[in-house]
């Protein structure tokens, strides 16, 4: 049994060589895994919202744009390379069918769009994806192999 | 003085929110009790200002499957209300009202689901009506929406909503019991910061 390192909401963790990074029950939030297979360096980020609009907000891991940039900065500092890096994403579900004027119903979808846009702009490849629909997902990245597993309620485990 | 962050609330103001929770929950529980003809009791509500991860931990295991009914509040008060129903409670009421038996919450039929939506609707409306007449503010309720899934995923919606303006949630929560048995259900009121100020002003505890 490898060491499990949990990643909270609006949180990120990274590790090398071995260990499993795990984030639980992603709903409209998105889990983004970063993996450099050559040096077995992995990071897992759990974002909640697409864009940081309030400059005063110091919680940069809460947003897709600032969270991905910060994760990338750390991963590169640890010797990761953008060219080798593979990213996988999970989450962005629509847990409730909400009409409402607040636009909250489609927050998951907005998260997916933003995450893809930011990863693309950074020149990162998305090699696996399990997003959308209406159920929560637990995402884990095994740093020794780079394998990403998605666990959902009432469905079989899926390897991305 | 207007509040800009949930942390700025003082003890006296927190007491007011506890009172709101108490009146709201009392009405919600009475409505449920009338519907089911069961004795339902409640705990003194709690008011918590918690960071996202702490809030989730407080409500329960993120991977646990729960039923949730959600309404959006708008008008002079905006925010979200959510009723979280745990497995034991759902099984008991489905057994009682529909004489049915469910093994798996995820495989619930339409009848069972609409029963839960109805329960949510009745309880949440009773809560909001009480809140509205106490404070004399007008609150509109959206059509209730229901989800059965992992608790963590369900909570992502109110968190995303509050996350726009804060790293914390303010949660007025109440547990209630059926026939003295702990069912571990939660009724949550999550007002946004602007609404907090409206409430405090109306109740004269600015």
Q: Short summary of the structure?
A:
The complex is a heterodimer of chains A (160) and B (206). With 160 residues, chain A is α+β, with helices and mostly antiparallel strands.
Q: Which percent range fits the helix content of chain A?
A: 10-25%
Task: Specify the structural class of chain B.
Answer: alpha+beta
Termini separation of chain B (Å)? 6 Å
Question: Strand order of the main beta sheet of chain A, please?
Answer: 1-3-8-9-10
> What's the count of strands of chain B?
8
H/E element order of chain B: HEEHEEHHEEHEEH
Secondary-structure class of chain A: alpha+beta
Q: What do you see in this structure?
A:
The complex is a heterodimer of chains A (160) and B (206). By secondary structure, chain A is α+β, with helices and mostly antiparallel strands. Chain A is built from two helices and ten strands; from the N terminus they run E-E-E-E-E-H-E-H-E-E-E-E. The two termini of chain A are 21 Å apart. With 206 residues, chain B is an alpha+beta fold. Chain B has one domain: 3-Layer(aba) Sandwich (Chemotaxis protein chec), CATH 3.40.1550.10. In chain B, helix 1 crosses helix 4. Chain B is globular and about 55 Å long. In chain B, 46% of the residues lie in helices and 28% in strands. Classes of the chains: A alpha+beta (160), B alpha+beta (206).
What is the fold's blueprint, element by element?
The complex is a heterodimer of chains A (160) and B (206).
Chain A: E1 4-6, E2 11-16, E3 20-26, E4 30-36, E5 41-47, H1 64-77, E6 86-91, H2 107-121, E7 125-131, E8 137-142, E9 148-151, E10 158-159
Parallel strand pairs in A: 1-3, 6-7
Antiparallel strand pairs in A: 2-5, 3-8, 4-5, 4-6, 8-9, 9-10
Chain B: H1 11-36, E1 40-42, E2 46-51, H2 52-59, E3 65-75, E4 79-85, H3 87-98, H4 110-135, E5 139-141, E6 145-150, H5 151-163, E7 168-178, E8 181-191, H6 193-202
Antiparallel strand pairs in B: 1-7, 2-7, 3-4, 3-5, 3-6, 4-8, 7-8
């Amino acid at each position: 049994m490898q060491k499990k390192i949990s990643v909270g909401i609006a949180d990120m963790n990274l590790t090398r060589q071995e260990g499993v990074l795990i984030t639980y029950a992603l709903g409209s939030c998105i889990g983004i895994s970063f993996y450099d297979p050559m040096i077995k360096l992995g990071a897992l980020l759990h974002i909640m919202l697409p864009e940081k609009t309030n400059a005063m907000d110091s919680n940069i891991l809460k947003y897709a744009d600032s969270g991905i940039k910060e994760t990338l900065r750390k991963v590169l500092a640890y010797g990761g390379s953008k060219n080798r890096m593979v990213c996988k994403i999970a989450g962005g579900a629509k847990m409730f069918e909400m009409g409402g004027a607040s636009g909250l119903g489609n927050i998951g979808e907005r998260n997916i769009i933003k995450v893809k846009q930011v990863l693309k702009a950074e020149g990162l490849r998305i090699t696996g994806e399990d997003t959308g629909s209406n159920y929560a997902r637990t995402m884990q990245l095994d740093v020794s192999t780079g394998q990403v597993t998605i666990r959902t309620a009432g469905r079989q485990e899926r390897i991305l | 003085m207007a509040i800009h962050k949930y942390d700025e609330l003082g003890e006296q103001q927190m007491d007011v929110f506890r009172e709101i929770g108490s009146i709201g929950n009392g009405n919600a529980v009475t409505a449920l009790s009338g519907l089911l003809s069961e004795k339902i009791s409640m705990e003194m509500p709690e008011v918590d200002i918690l960071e996202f991860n702490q809030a989730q931990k407080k409500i329960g295991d993120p991977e646990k499957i729960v039923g949730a009914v959600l309404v959006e509040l708008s008008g002079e008060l905006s925010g979200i209300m959510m009723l979280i129903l745990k497995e034991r409670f759902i099984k008991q009421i489905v057994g009682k009202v529909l004489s049915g038996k469910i093994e798996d919450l995820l495989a619930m039929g339409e009848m069972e689901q609409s029963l839960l939506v109805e329960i949510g609707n009745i309880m949440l409306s009773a809560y909001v009506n009480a809140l509205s007449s106490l404070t004399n503010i007008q609150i509109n309720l959206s059509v209730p929406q229901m989800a059965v899934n992992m608790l963590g995923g369900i909570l992502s919606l109110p968190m995303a909503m509050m996350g726009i303006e804060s790293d914390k949630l303010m949660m007025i929560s109440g547990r209630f019991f059926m026939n003295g048995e702990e069912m571990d259900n939660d009724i949550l009121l999550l007002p946004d910061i602007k609404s907090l100020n409206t409430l405090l002003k109306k109740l004269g505890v600015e």
